Amino acid sequence: xxxxxPEKFHERHAELVEMxxxxxxxxxxxxxxxxxxxxxxxxxxxxxxxLDLVVGQLEGLEAARVxxxxxxxxxxxxxxxxxxxxxxxxxxxxxxxxxxxxxxIEKIAxxxxxxxxxxxxxxxxxxxxxxxxxPHYKPVNMPAHVASNQMQGAFESLARTEMLLPxxxxxxxNDARVLQGITLADRxxxxxxxxxxxxxxxxxxxxxx
Length: 209
What we know:
There is one protein chain. 88% of the residues lie in helices and 0% in strands. It is mostly helical. It has one domain: Helix Hairpins, CATH 1.10.287. Helix 1 (6-36) packs antiparallel against helix 2 (41-133) and helix 2 runs antiparallel to helix 3 (144-198). The longest helix is centred in the middle third of the chain and has 93 residues, at 41-133. 7% of the residues are buried. Mean pLDDT is 76; it is low at 199-209.
């Protein structure tokens, strides 16, 4: 069904009103002439049919306007509901992403804590090994070759840890930025939904009923 626009309705309505006024005048004149004997009953019937036709067209035009308004209102309600549903889905998705990101950050933070503890332990171990290996110190607790091996192992572990820590730190920094972006987007999404709901552009299904 082709919807009747308000502009088209007013244009056609004005035309039919003018035609009805003319048909009504013709019908009155036909009745008057028939009463005076200068007209016939056939003329009255013809004028009456012409008037009824225009009145019927006016009624049909009004019915078309009502139906067009009903269809447009239904389309608007559907569009509002779809927009609301989309915002709700987007918000739920953002919340899920945020929770996943928080979990990632907590996991990486624990990893970082473990690595930093390992870093401190290796540093202490390296210091002890270096002290024990110095020629002017007597290796009281361990032979020199043991201290040497331990120092070498500590150096290697320390190097691995020093290489890993910046990567972990960068990952945490990146996840923190992601979390900030998701949180901001979630807040903006909620604010948009509230604004649209306040101005009546969208509403939950229960508000549209």
